[in-house]
Design goal:
mainly alpha; about 170 residues; globular; Arp2/3 complex 21 kDa subunit ARPC3
């Protein structure tokens, strides 16, 4: 049942991302809900669930956005795995460390996506990818992580007593 709920949450976030949040930006920053959720959940639950959520969320985002299928999925799998590996070792109750992790993961995600799109012969403006997309989105995601990370921790503790972090 929890995988059905997770899938529905990611589907809703992907739909919101491509319909509402893609048209709303503040200084070039539009939060990436799916990416933010994948990283927050990976920090809380570890690399295995990070990879699963990253693949599912990235694939749903790819299908909703109309971009090349698999690009976001591969990026989110990589970011989810690394965030999951580091999450249990580095984070506890300090809310600033997950915020920094989400910021860094957002930048890495966009660099991975830019690389994958470049290998598929899409024109890639690296300066634009980093300065106009990755940094502002990383800042927006980092700020939103102050809300999303505690929610992910709360949910993880309620569905399974073996969550990796403490409230």
């Amino acid at each position: 049942m929890r995988f059905v709920v997770a899938g529905l949450i990611l589907l809703l976030e992907a739909a919101l991302q491509v319909s509402v949040f893609s048209r709303m930006s503040l200084g070039g920053a539009a939060p990436q809900l799916v990416l933010l959720t994948v990283v927050a959940w990976s920090l809380v639950r570890g690399p295995v669930e990070g990879v699963v959520w990253g693949f599912a969320g990235g694939l749903l985002y790819d299908l909703a956005s109309g971009g090349p299928v698999g690009v976001s999925a591969l990026g989110m799998v990589a970011v989810g795995a690394v965030a999951g590996l580091l999450g249990g070792r580095l984070f506890g109750t300090n809310p600033l460390l997950p915020m920094l992790a989400v910021f860094a993961a957002s930048i890495v995600y966009f660099v991975i996506n830019g690389f994958l799109l470049a290998t598929l012969h899409y024109p890639t403006d690296w300066r634009g990818v980093v300065l106009d997309v990755a940094l502002p989105t990383g800042l927006a995601n980092g700020a939103l992580s102050l809300v999303v990370y505690p929610i992910a921790t709360f949910i993880a503790l309620r569905i399974n007593k073996e969550a990796r972090v403490e409230i």
